[in-house]
Amino acid sequence: MFDAFLLRAALAGLGTGLAAGLLGCFVVWRRMAYFGDATAHAAILGVALSLVTNLPIFAGVLVMALVMGLALDRLDSRGHEVNTALGVLAHSALALGLVAVALLPGRQVNLDLYLFGDVLTVGWGDIAVIWGGAAVVIGLLWWFWSRLLASTLTPDLAHAAGFDPRRDQRLLTLAIACVVAVAIKVVGALLIAALLIMPAAAARGLSRTPEAMAILSMTIAGIAAVAGLWMAVWLDTPVGPSIVCVAAGIYLLSHLATGR
Fold first, then answer.
1. Which of 153, 176, 140 is nearest to 24 (CA)?
2. How far apart are CA 112 and CA 156, in angstroms?
3. 3-class DSSP string for 98-111
4. Residue 81's pLDDT band (cuts 50, 70, 90)
5. How many independent structural domains does the chain possess?
6. Residue 81: which domain range?
7. What CATH number has the domain bearing residue 180?
8. With contact defined as beta carbons under 8 Å apart, do 52 and 107 qualify?
């Protein structure tokens, strides 16, 4: 039973890491770190929605993360001061979610489970959802890789080639919402953005091409997930923060090795 228990946790962390590692490259290239953070904070509102409507947690979190992402996209397209809007919406969503969960009648909710994750509690059904969501994200990014890359690195040329950078931005918004939904049980709403950013940031200085960076980022995220789980079991520490600590350590090593 103990081996199956760890196997489920490792599979959940690995599936989340692979999707976050690949998507994180676009988050880093487009400088969307705060965007990802704001979307992740909306996950707590999604938890409250799920508990009120008896929806699966994945569904509620996905809906609220997508609503937040589309709201931010709309503000950006209308020329609002995006950094300020991101800050307001991110912290408002987190605060509203915490208050909403606390006010749910007749429910004792362990908020730490959703704030910091608890991959050790996942079942086989959760793993199916995580890997299904990860497959959707990886499949979308692989299928639209060329146009997403063009829209990210050379928006003007992408527009001239007939691509719509705004549509590609919405595709990335959908992907971020999906990763937030599958990652909440693994690293929690407060740490999802770290798993998106750190592996990609570590891979950037060690890669010469976007494809190499994507593969290396996925590898680093997978290593961080499995090594973080091992560290948590060995040191008796929370799994989500342990995974992020390993990712941060890898980033620090890559920065020292490359100076970037």
1. 176
2. 44
3. HHHHHCCCCCCCCH
4. low
5. 1
6. 2-258
7. 1.10.3470.10
8. no
Q: Report residue 228 as tokens.
A: 């973080």
Q: What is the residue type of 198?
A: M
Secondary structure of 102-167 in HEC code, one letter for each residue: HCCCCCCCCHHHHHCCCHHHCCHHHHHHHHHHHHHHHHHHHHCHHHHHHHHHCHHHHHHCCCCHHH
- Rounded (5°) CA angle 255-184-205: 15
SS3 48: helix
Per-residue CA distances from 31 to 27, 28, 65, 129, 152 (Å): 6, 5, 18, 28, 10
73 closest CA partner among 29, 26, 32 = 32
Map tokens 């979190």 to a residue: 61
Residue 193 and residue 90 in contact, taking contact as beta carbons nearer than 8 Å = no
Single-letter residue type at 211 = E
The token duo for 255 is 């920065």
What are the pLDDT digits (tens) for 135-154? 999 999 999 998 888 888 77
pLDDT 10s digits, 214-230: 999 999 999 999 999 99
Q: Which residues contact 150 (CB under 8 A, 6 or more apart)?
A: 157, 158, 161, 163
Query: Which residue in this structure is represented by tokens 């008796």?
Result: 236
